[in-house]
Specification:
Blueprint (H helix, E strand, L loop, with lengths): L7 H13 L13 H11 L11 E5 L3 H20 L3 H9 L10 E8 L16 H19 L3 E5 L4 H7 L6 E10 L9 H4 L16
Antiparallel strand pairs: 1-2, 2-4, 3-4
Bound molecules: flavin mononucleotide.
The site of flavin mononucleotide has 11 residues, from strand 3.
Protein name: 5,6-dimethylbenzimidazole synthase
GO molecular function: 5,6-dimethylbenzimidazole synthase activity
EC number: 1.13.11.79
Length: 212
């Protein structure tokens, strides 16, 4: 079997995809077709994983009461973050929008099965955290698959993970990784929202190799 050749035009589009993939916090409420969500899930599951363990677990959160509980979890966690800051830092933090969960039509919680039978433990003995990294790679794959279709994903981590697991009735050995808001963005953007709001900016120094 020969591997597919990706023409230069595709590579230019791929570059644009990396540039335009955004963490989205401002959504339109229009739902996505179920078939599109299924495609995103399917593509996320093409991610690499330690020992081919595929430890990612995606949970669609549709129940209004569960969504409301997660929203309260975010409000409390965000207030705690704000309490830990002072002065101008606190003032600036308070202006940030750090979740689009009120408007996003789809909510997806992502977990890692920290002890999956699949993969038969390969590659995990010296670095058990590789299961977590594998699941995070699936999240990034989903993020890119969504961006390629003009669909926004917003990662919310300002949450109490134990409380999120309890709200979603999650089995004990699943580690909470992310709460993703998914939907069409209100506006596309080629720079991070935190950069546009003057909170932080990309650092060109990170684009250089360190040689040893
Ligand atoms: C592990 C992780 C956790 C994040 N948690 C949050 C969050 O709780 N709220 C939020 O608004 N953005 C969150 N983000 C998004 C980052 O703020 C965003 O990726 C970063 O500012 C760069 O912007 P970009 O993704 O649009 O390039 C998170 C991103 C990652 C990778």
């Amino acid at each position: 079997m020969t591997s597919p050749a990706f023409p230069p035009a595709f590579l230019a589009d791929l570059d644009r995809l990396f540039i335009w993939r955004r963490d989205v916090r401002h959504f339109r409420t229009t739902p996505l077709p179920d078939s599109v969500l299924d495609t995103l899930l399917h593509e996320a599951c093409l991610a690499p994983s330690v020992g081919l363990s595929e430890p990612w677990r995606f949970v669609r959160v549709d129940t209004p009461a569960r969504r409301a509980a997660i929203r309260q979890n975010f409000i409390r966690s965000n207030a705690r973050e704000l309490d830990g800051r002072s002065g101008e830092d606190a003032q600036r933090y308070a202006t940030l929008k750090l979740s689009g969960m009120d408007e996003a039509p789809h909510h997806i919680a992502v977990f890692c099965d920290t002890n999956p039978a699949q993969g038969r433990g390969l590659g995990r003995a010296s670095m058990p955290e590789t299961t977590t990294w594998s699941a995070v790679m699936a999240i990034h794959t989903l993020w890119l698959a969504a961006a390629a279709r003009g669909i926004g994903v917003g990662w919310v981590s300002i949450l109490d993970p134990a409380e999120a697991c309890s709200t979603l009735s999650i089995t004990p050995h699943w580690q909470f990784l992310a709460y993703l808001c998914v939907g069409y963005p209100q506006e596309p953007a080629s720079t991070p929202e935190l950069e546009r709001r003057g909170w932080e900016s990309r650092n060109p120094a990170r684009r250089r190799w360190i040689n040893r």
